[in-house]
Amino acid sequence: MAAQAQAQTIVVGSKGFTELERAALHYAELFKQGEHSVDKDEVYTDLARQFSDEEVIELGVFCAGVDGVGKSVKSLNVLSGGKRASSIPSSRPTERRSQRNKLN
Q1: Which pLDDT score is estimated for 61?
Q2: H/E element holding 100?
Q3: What's the burial of 47, exposed, middle or buried (CB within 10 Å: 0-12/13-18/19+)?
Q4: φ and ψ at 57, to 5 degrees?
Q5: Which of 30, 61, 66, 102 is the most buried (most CB within 10 A)?
Q6: DSSP letters spanning 54-83
Q7: Considering the chain, what percentage of its residues have pLDDT values greater than 70?
Q8: Burial, 22: exposed, middle or buried (Cβ in 10 Å; 0-12, 13-18, 19+)?
């Protein structure tokens, strides 16, 4: 958690990002924490200062897509570089089902 707080401080305090980019990154951080973090009026009030309604929707859909892909990749045990974890014999769902059926 300390690394996440440090990364957030770097983003918020960075002169390398515009206000618009910092607002989008802040929303992405909240989105990753879960719906309890983004389901607040103040989150969308803050976004409305920087983005149109259409852009807020696009940002939310983009965050959902990235988060969903990340969860899917994690569930398949895919590591960076297209490699898979060696502790799992297969990352393909059909082979995983087959292995599970053998155990039952």
Answers
A1: 95
A2: helix 93-103
A3: buried
A4: -60, -45
A5: 30
A6: HHHHHHHHHHHHHHHHHHHHHHTTBPGGG-
A7: 62
A8: middle
Spell out where the chain has E strands.
none
Average of per-residue pLDDT values in the chain: 79
- Bridge partners (DSSP) of residue 78 are 84
CB contact at 8 A, 31 and 37? yes
pTM for the full model? Answer: 0.62
User: How would you class 60 by CB atoms within 10 Å of its CB: exposed for 0-12, middle for 13-18, buried for 19 or more?
Assistant: middle
pLDDT tens for each residue of 58-95: 999 999 999 888 888 888 877 666 565 555 555 566 66
> What is the rounded distance in angstroms from the CA atom of residue 82 to the CA atom of residue 84?
7
Enumerate the domain spans of the chain.
Answer: 2-78
CA atoms within 13 A on the CB side of 53: 0
pLDDT at 75: 84
**What token pair was written down for 8?**
């957030």
